[in-house]
Design brief:
With about 120 residues, this protein is an alpha/beta fold. The chain folds into two domains: about 50 residues, no CATH class; about 40 residues, no CATH class. It has four helices and six strands. Helix 4 links the parallel strand 5 and strand 6.
């Protein structure tokens, strides 16, 4: 378990080359698992936390790993697609806040919004 580290693409490519040439000893496996906690800096806004389960042996067919979680403590906010229609956003916002009692912020992403320009030019 751990927070995702956000790195430059060149750093990630270097890590991948090391992992592709690694053997099968415990140190190499540990490095391979650590690589699952790395993403490009472009995704830094996600502030992601990951849990990885490494099974040393196969589970019987049809068996699933069930992990109980409290979604209200796990999910901090919900951002919807910036292209979503306002009616869709309203429905999701209502459902999350009123029906599921989600207390975090629920909004449409502003990813594609034009930045506000400062009007600092004075005459």
């Amino acid at each position: 378990m751990g927070e995702v580290q956000y790195k430059l693409a060149s750093e990630i490519e270097r890590m991948q080359r090391i992992h592709l040439t690694a053997g099968r000893n415990a140190d190499d496996q540990d490095r391979a698992i650590k690589s699952l906690f790395v993403k490009r800096k472009a995704f830094r806004h996600e502030s992601e936390y990951r849990v990885v389960v490494f099974a040393k042996r196969d589970r019987p067919s049809g068996k699933r790993l069930l992990i109980p979680v409290d979604p209200h403590s796990l999910i901090l906010s919900v951002l919807m697609d910036p292209r979503a229609h306002e009616a869709t956003v309203s429905v999701f916002k209502f459902f999350l806040e009123k029906r599921l009692k989600f207390s975090g912020p629920v909004a449409k992403s502003t990813l594609y919004d034009k930045p506000e320009l400062e009007q600092s030019v004075r005459r």
